[in-house]
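User: Just a sanity check before I run the rest of the batch. Below are the structure tokens for the first item. I only need the designed sequence back.
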């Protein structure tokens, strides 16, 4: 079967996430729906992000999903449940990125994990992140359905005591949000650490900035991913295999 650009895009994001040290062993998963379908690609179980190739992405369909439930060595059960539930219940989540990255996870452990608007990156996510505040263990069926319901119409979700999920219409959008959420969380957690009063901007300015970022005249997410692929084309071309 011919490898698609969707698979190559997704494979590139795994490689770059490892370079950013936002991976965690062989855990965490990214997924992307096939255009015009609810079938989705997700990373094969047990492969380090630095080694993932386009051909390592497993296509999950309505027909093979039950079979894959009995083959955890192919697709991790939490990936099948979390990504499967969200793709099924949340139409706008065409691509899903889930990590336990350092700063996003630290933020998720706070009693109030709201990302306050204190700089441009934090403002990008203003009123655009739901909080799933009912951690109930690993993401098996019941927990995954609760996550999907909690995401609602928001594009992203902070999983309290767990990590972050970002979504997008495209791989570039979802990955770009994951990258910038971690940057925003790093700034916020660093600012909190100095124990000084934060300079939080008004609702009006935060919302205006978020809208401006969303409607930016250049598709910076697409450009970012294209630049990543150009670098990988030279340094790690096997990601496309």
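Assistant: Here's the designed sequence for the first item:
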């Amino acid at each position: 079967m011919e490898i698609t650009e969707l698979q190559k895009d997704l494979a590139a994001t795994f490689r770059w996430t490892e370079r950013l040290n936002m991976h965690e062993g062989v855990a965490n998963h990214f997924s992307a729906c096939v255009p015009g379908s609810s079938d989705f690609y997700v990373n094969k179980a047990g492969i380090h992000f630095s080694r993932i190739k386009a051909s390592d992405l497993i296509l999950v369909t309505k027909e093979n999903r039950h079979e894959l439930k009995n083959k955890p060595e192919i697709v991790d059960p939490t990936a099948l449940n979390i990504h499967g539930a969200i793709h099924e219940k949340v139409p706008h989540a065409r691509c899903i990125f889930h990590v336990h990255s350092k700063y996003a996870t630290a933020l998720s452990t706070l009693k109030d994990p709201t990302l306050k608007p204190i700089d441009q990156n934090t403002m990008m996510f203003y009123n655009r992140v739901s909080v799933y505040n009912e951690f109930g263990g690993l993401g098996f069926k019941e927990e995954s359905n609760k996550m999907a319901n909690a995401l609602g119409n928001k594009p992203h979700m902070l999983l309290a005591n767990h990590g972050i999920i970002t979504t997008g219409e495209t791989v570039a959008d979802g990955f770009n949000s994951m990258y910038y959420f971690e940057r925003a969380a790093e700034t916020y957690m660093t600012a909190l650490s100095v124990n000084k009063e934060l300079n939080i901007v008004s609702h009006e300015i935060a919302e205006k900035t978020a809208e401006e970022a969303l409607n930016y005249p250049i598709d910076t997410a697409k450009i970012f991913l294209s630049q990543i692929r150009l670098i990988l084309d030279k340094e790690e071309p096997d990601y496309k295999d």
